[in-house]
Amino acid sequence: MFATPRWGIRLDAVAVLVAGLAGLAGCAGSGERIATMVTPYRADVVQGNFVSSEQVAALKPGMSRQQVREILGTPLMASLFHAHRWEYVFTIRRQGVEDQSRRLTVFFDGDRYVRTEGDEMPSEAEFVASLGSKVQNPKIPPLEATEDQLARFPKADPATAPDTPPAAPSGTRYPPLEPAGR
Fold it and tell me: How far is CA 32 from CA 19, 20, 29, in A?
């Protein structure tokens, strides 16, 4: 096809290289456009404790810190400088969905719960609904086979089907599961 010159480079390889460089040169001014066309995958990031409105409603003034911890979980922040309060912060970042962030501060007087301040917490059902798929009305495939699809498979004859599973070949020996002498 192409002759190889004395310096060892084939002309078809040079042609491909020149075409590739010309293609890249044409893209020099459109780097911003290409960057917006291709988006890398971003993993979902969940930080903190999700606190539901049902959990906040279960808190009663006078509860001990341990009782509050059993209901809400371990606080994200418990400062040495602010020992009278615990901070519960929850954030979730998902690709293609607006970030969610909620904050709740629990106040104590000594070892006893006094009150809470912060964002309005969603119910568990509302939170689960907000995690729904980004795809609206996904197409669900039929879960039943049609008669035509079933006809493709050979039908088993109940008269020839064995009642018991096949046994191991005769003469096969297996080692004991436990050592002897127990």
Answer: 22, 20, 8
